[in-house]
Amino acid sequence: MIALxxxxxxxxxxxxxxxxxxxxxxxxxxxxxxxxRERNDADQQLQAGLTRSMDRYQVVADSxxxxxxxxxxxxxxxxxxxRGGRSLARARSRHPGVLLIRGTSRPPTPAAxxxxxxxxxxxGRTVGQVIVLIPLGRELIADLxxxxxxxxxxxxxxxxxxSLILEAGTTQLRARPQGQRPVDVxxxxxxxxxxxxxxxxxxxxxxxxxxxxxxxxxAAADRAQWRAVAVGLALMAALLSLAYAVxxxxxxxxxxxxxxxxxERVLAHLGDGVVVVDHEGVVRLWNAAAEAITGxxxxxxxxxxxxxxxxxxxxxxxxxxxxxxxxxGGELSSVETVPLDVEGREIWxxxxxxxxxxxxxxxxxxxxxxxxxxxxxxxxxxxxxxxLRTPLASLHGAALxxxxxxxxxxxxxxxxxxxxxAEQSKRLADLVEExxxxxxxxxxxxxxxxxxxxxxxLVRSAAMIAHARVGEDTTIALAVEPLLPKVQGxxxxxxxxxxxxxxxxxxxxxxxxxxxxxxxxAGDGVRFSVRDEGLGIPLGEQERIxxxxxxxxxxxxGGIGGSGxxxxxxxxxxxxxxxxxxVESEPGRGTLVSFELPAAQRVPVPV
Length: 607
Description:
Strand order of the largest sheet: 6-5-4-9-8-7
Radius of gyration: 35 Å
Shape: flat
Oligomer: single chain
């Protein structure tokens, strides 16, 4: 290194100090951000563990509810509740873990238990209730905690008022967890990060909780913060050293080498993938972004022939033109979008290449989502164009016929043409309505009401509408269970879902047959179903039929049209009302589409 005059050395040192101050602030901010992210990750893992544990608990609760309904429906229990006395005592002794209570009053239940209650009705009169007890004790905690779903350090417990029921015993809480967000509470002598969910409705005093020592989370956050600070300080020191190294007094060869090192470090931290291939076809640089985009590890690719390390590289290199120099202002880079197949996963890369003195540098970014979006747009345009062509052609032809030959046509023909215009206009309106609803669902602006309504009345009205839409070779049958509870939801949106499912059943039943529209109680909700005897759905396609723009007959070779939005709208409307929807089908033997909505009230189980 060539010596600098003292004054210039002081000036350079001052400049480096001024540069270091904002870098130190940035590094410290990065450390604080890393600590916050570590804490947020810990909270998300707690919530995920709670969600999975609640799913497992729900299996236990559903089993208890089924047991209660079965007992409530038995003649033995009904007679015992009517007679009371020894008959009731014998029934109670034969069913441990169950309370058989005469009347409708709510008796106190044992501490540390959850319950599932079913009322028993005999000849229209409520004679009592079956209460199935779910002990919230160590055995149940051990069963739930035995799943690998909980992360290391997480523990499971039940909250009953201010009591915390653990696998090792029971302790008292100073403060009860509120809401569904993680909070810090004192458990014994230590501070714990805890998140809880009510077991049986929002007003339940009993909760399932997952917690982890706050000190463990804080320690992980501190490690993340100091690790980020250390890396940032190291990078800052390297940057300041580089700034000093490239001072004007450095020899030309040293400057050139340092600049190259700096360029490689910058490339390693770019958001775009960068790969450098020398004239022998060997990969000399594979940056972190390239690794993240493709999933190919740098140690697997670097210093190996590109043709061996990168799948399909020869085809990619042949498709991407190599520019002699980077594009300047006003010029366009020659960018190509090419596919890359990595272990069965197709990735589309938007890639540009520039020649270097000792090889070629390729820069690329992940264009898979853009490609998929473009494919969806093209599919949507093609589908909508096809769906619009038929009604527009019919409308145009009927209108021209009426305009040019209206006086010559019989009243019957004129009526048929007007009916065609009305029918095709409605088809266009339905298509536009589907597009508008899909847009509102995507933007979250669709308003869905939540009010009690009669499911039987709604199903019968939907069946009447469907009767007018089917031909003589198709029949609509109703299967309505008695004693249906009211449904909590939006009746108009529910009717829209049923009509969409009925239209699909008719559309995919080209040979006609019977379409069954059913409604029945299902646990704490009501299940609606539409069954047809049509073409059925292949097993590999059943998970995709609710996707936007998806159609079983995309090329319409079977003459089955549609926008591909109907089942997507059904799924989103059912979800917005707190329900779920699914399909069961076998190719050639018909399809059953069912959805459940929550009930607005409980109904006694008949004996």
